Every structure is written in structure tokens, then in C-alpha cells.
TrEMBL record:
GO BP terms in the entry: mitochondrial respiratory chain complex III assembly
GO cellular component: mitochondrial nucleoid
Key words, A-Z: Mitochondrion, Mitochondrion nucleoid, Transit peptide
Compartments reported by the entry: Mitochondrion matrix, Mitochondrion nucleoid
Keyword S-adenosyl-L-methionine: no
Pfam families the record matches: UQCC2_CBP6 (PF20180)
Organismal lineage: Eukaryota, Metazoa, Chordata, Craniata, Vertebrata
InterPro entries in the cross-refs: UQCC2
Protein name: Mitochondrial nucleoid factor 1
Amino acid sequence: MSATRYRRFLKLCEEWPRDESKKGRDLGTFLRQRVAAAFREGENTQISDTEKCDQTYESLARINANTYKQRFPRVRDTSFTGVTAEECKLMLSGSAQQSDDDKKSLWKTLTERFSSKSTEEVPEKAPEK
């Protein structure tokens, strides 16, 4: 019986997509590692809690098949922040290079903003004749 569970988990691992932009943080890679650890002996692994194992497999299979995404479709492609899913994915990928503005500390950014505004807001006097 554990042989069929092992094969089902292996098939799920093959179907689960890998996100190469998330090195070390990819859910697919994590799932593969957990399956390898849980089934150390392959098909001969004895499972103590078969009900929990089946429940875990069914949950992961539903996530992989986008069951909930299809059951509860989104009205808009943005979140409350107005950021699209693609922009979120790009920010979370870690591969996007940070610009100089992103690397600055909050204090430095604030001081630059206020200092540049104060000089811009003050109108220059016309040269006296």
C-alpha cells in the first residue's frame, strides 16, 4: 500500500512546477525534499499514519490542480495595493536588481526628499539692478 502512495507523491512532484527565480525558496523544490525525506526507503517505506499521508497528498494535489482558483475566481487581477500578480511575482522573485533608490535607508530618502523640496519651493529673487 505504501508503494502506491510513494508513486502518487512522485507523480505529484513531477507535475509540480519549479520556479527557477526563487533559488532556495521554491515550493516545488521544498516539496521534493520533503517527499525524499518521508520516503527514505522508497516503495518499502512504512508509513505510521496513513490517513494523514493521504490527507496531505489530497491537499497538495488540489493546490497543484488550481482547484480553489477555479472554484473562487478573482474579480480583478490586482490586490488592494493595486499591484498586479506579475509585478508581485517579480518583486518576490529576488532576481530583480534593486535600484539605488531602493538601497537607500529610509532616513536618507526622507532627508533628500525634504531638502530638495525646500530648495525648489523657495523662489529665486530677481537680480537687483
